[in-house]
Specification:
The structure holds two protein chains of two kinds. By secondary structure, chain A is an alpha+beta fold. Chain A has helices at 15-23, 34-45, 50-60, 64-73, 93-96, 100-111, 153-164, 192-197, 202-205, 209-221, 225-240, and strands spanning 85-90, 124-129, 141-143, 146-148. In chain A, α2 (34-45) packs antiparallel against α3, α3 (50-60) packs across α4 (64-73) and α10 (209-221) runs antiparallel to α11 (225-240). The model of chain A is unreliable at 183-241 (pLDDT under 50). In chain B, strands 6-5-9-7-8 form a five-stranded mixed β-sheet, with helices on one face. A four-stranded parallel β-sheet of chain B has the order 3-2-1-4, sandwiched between helices. Classes of the chains: A alpha+beta, B alpha/beta.
Chain lengths: 241, 446
């Protein structure tokens, strides 16, 4: 893309930030700053334009093609602006087994976008991405930087409604197993409790008959505090569900 | 000596064993556990004090004696890796943490960094002392924004209170950590690709040798370990090597974190002693299959699948036992595949992942993994395949094994090969009839 107007350099009024980023790396490793600098631009502007690439190259004493070469290697730097709400559907195996294909098809129909597209108003972008590392709480949808875990049909509707009003809901941070916390205490900012109330989170846990036997055995043993409170956590979770 | 062996208590190999205690994940999920105050209250940084007061070589020996093996997938003994570092010669040395958790199925590191980041910082500090590296590099995948924020907060706290910086804990040792965000590339989990990425280069893997201990970050002596490996270190130092080695098998000691996903009733991350059976993992922890299962992947998608039968369910979580059975323990990510899921479709999903992540450096991977293999799958799934295509695919994956520059091609080819071995009928059915044996099903939760 050829840009005809002169653009104000991104880092011109951000001397402190630039110094902080360059200061993270030794003098002989100045080039390491290329990824953090690309990130700064992208987080602010939702993409990295050719002129920003040239600016970063100049800061680091590189050619623009070297910076572009790094940028194009990675999948999360964008050469075109993404929407205000960048919906990234994880589509790798664990999410697939939890219905991410159907989730993505639903988004395609609802938003009228195919993966890779941004709508005309610049509001929504849809992208199919590879494993986001939320496999035990699949399917997962990443909106900008935030993970929404175990996205059910009902939850997706709520989320889309909020985003259409330009409001981003608190993240859903589903926890199961040992990452649910010792006392089963909900994390700050979680809506897991709300989900449990509407019965959405219950579907999965309700079927665990084998697991209950296990917990009972652990409780009988009652040897260590950890084991006991662990079991309590499970019991509480299951009771709640 | 013989008496001592006879008296040694039976190793812990089950979650049902009353001696087993959740340790690394103890405070994961507990509100507020990510703060320095909470960590100190739980006895945090005591191990670092202990380590810094002792000889660096002693720390290496303790970790060696514990039997801790890398938790990132390859399972290399951590203490042995540390001892590969050349003698101190005045050059900068680095301890690198691989937090580019991208193996599909894996999420153990994310929760640890989000909810108990000081454990990792303390682990890096101790490892830094052990190998006499004053700089830590924490390379975290770009998508883990929440974990990144938590880590940055924790590092700030640690600097403010003298746990990082100059004269750490009033010792003569200086140590600080730089956190570097990736940007969506699976290949950065390969140690030398990660180092190139950190240096601001395209993340192509480097030729080994030289290994990172000789020429790592910026060509300087470096050691790289996974998040969970490093987070295990404070506990080993605090509780002793014997505590760790009392769990598991002769080959594989200590604790691991299984991440159960796919068709199970209770997916989640569970801390387990090594040597635990896959049956206990899937049934007792995961609550059993949520619909009839036909296969399971023992350690993330790069590990060949096993049929869901007694022989494989009874396998212990042990590096050599799983290898002997024809797969890998990997990152401990167990994925259960239901009976009604078309295997060809599932393996196309896996192949597409590796095709997307192939870096393009070497021909076998670029042409095989990134181009031809996904095309063959697309042809079959579109109903345009012929029975010969199945043979061609089998031949391709055989030729991909061991011929590429780095393990990524194997990570794709081997699982496809295993799926052909166990479920060839499904490939042949597609090739003959043009329709899958198990048609696509709506799997999305209401």
């Amino acid at each position: 893309m050829i840009e005809l107007q002169t653009v104000t350099p991104f880092f011109e009024d951000k001397v402190e930030l630039l110094d902080e980023i360059l200061g993270r790396y030794p003098d002989y490793g100045r080039r390491s700053a290329v990824m953090p600098l690309l990130w700064e631009v992208q987080r602010a502007e939702r993409y990295v334009s050719e002129s920003r690439v040239a600016e970063i190259a100049e800061i680091l004493g590189l050619h623009a093609t070297e910076v572009k070469g790094v940028m194009s290697f990675y999948s999360t730097y964008h050469g075109e602006p993404v929407g205000r709400w960048h919906l990234q559907v994880c589509s790798t195996l664990s999410c697939k087994l939890a219905g991410s294909d159907e989730l993505c098809d639903h988004l395609v129909e609802t938003l009228g976008l195919v993966p890779g597209e941004t709508d005309a108003e610049g509001r929504f972008s849809l992208q199919k991405v590879e494993c986001l590392g939320s496999c035990t709480t699949a399917p997962v949808l990443q909106v900008n930087d935030t993970y929404y875990e175990r996205v059910t049909r009902g939850r997706l509707e709520q989320l889309l409604d909020a985003l259409k009003r330009d409001e981003q809901p608190e993240p859903w941070r589903e926890r199961h197993g040992d990452n649910a916390g010792l006392g089963g205490a909900p994390l700050a900012g979680t809506t897991a409790t709300a989900a449990a109330e509407t019965g959405e989170a219950a579907g999965v846990d309700a079927e665990t008959t084998d697991a209950e036997t296990t917990d009972a055995e652990t409780t009988d043993a009652e040897t260590t505090d950890a084991a006991a409170s662990e079991a309590a956590a499970h019991d509480e979770k299951e009771g709640g569900a | 000596m013989a008496d001592a062996v006879a008296e040694r208590p039976k190793p812990i190999t089950s979650r049902h064993d009353p001696r087993f205690e959740v340790t690394l994940y103890r405070y994961v999920g507990v509100e507020g556990a990510h703060t320095m105050d909470a960590y100190l209250e739980h006895g945090g940084y005591q191990a670092a004090r202990k380590a810094l007061a002792s000889d660096a070589g002693e720390v290496v020996n303790t970790v060696k004696a514990s039997g801790l093996r890398g938790r990132g997938g390859a399972g290399f003994p951590a203490g042995v890796k540390w001892s590969f570092m050349p003698p101190v010669d005045g050059r900068q040395r680095f301890i690198v943490c691989n937090a580019d958790e991208s193996e599909p199925g894996s999420c153990k590191d994310r929760y640890l960094m989000e909810d108990d980041p000081h454990q990792l910082i303390e682990g890096m500090l101790i490892a830094g002392w052990a190998i006499q590296a004053t700089k830590g590099v924490l390379y975290i995948r770009g998508e883990y924004w929440h974990a990144y924020e938590r880590l940055m907060g924790a590092i700030e706290e640690a600097r403010a209170r003298g746990y990082l910086g100059t004269n750490v804990l009033d010792s003569d040792f200086d140590f600080d950590i730089v956190v570097h965000r990736g940007a969506g590339a699976y290949i950065c989990g390969e140690e030398t690709a990660l180092m190139n990425s950190f240096e601001g280069l395209r993340a192509n893997p480097r030729l080994k040798p030289p290994f990172p201990a000789q020429a790592g970050v910026y060509g300087l002596p470096s050691t790289i370990n996974n998040v969970t490996t490093l987070a295990s270190v404070p506990h080993i130092i605090e509780k002793g090597a014997d505590w760790f080695s009392a769990m598991g098998t002769d080959d594989s000691k200590g604790i691991h974190h299984v991440q159960i996903s796919g068709a199970v009733a209770r997916p989640g991350v569970y801390e387990v002693p090594m040597g635990i059976s896959y049956r206990e993992i899937i049934h007792d922890l995961g609550g059993g299959p949520s619909s009839p299962a036909k296969a399971f992947i023992p350690g993330g998608t790069s590990c060949p699948m096993f049929p869901y039968d007694d022989e494989h369910l009874d396998l212990p979580m042990d590096f050599s036992a799983v290898a002997k059975a024809g797969s890998m323990l990997g990152t401990g990510a167990v994925i259960v595949i239901p009976e009604d899921q078309c295997i060809v479709d599932a393996m196309y999903n896996v192949t597409r992942f590796y095709a997307h992540e192939s870096c393009g450096k070497c021909t076998p991977c670029r042409e095989g993994v990134a181009t031809w293999l996904p095309k063959m799958f697309q042809k079959l799934l579109a109903g345009l395949g012929t029975p010969d295509d199945v043979d061609v695919m089998e031949d391709m994956v055989k030729n991909l094994r061991g011929t590429a520059f780095c393990p990524l091609a194997d990570a794709c080819a081997w699982p496809v090969q295993a799926s052909l071995q166990h479920f060839r009928n499904e490939y042949e059915h597609l090739a003959q009839h043009g329709t899958p044996l198990h048609p696509r099903k709506d799997r999305w939760l209401a």
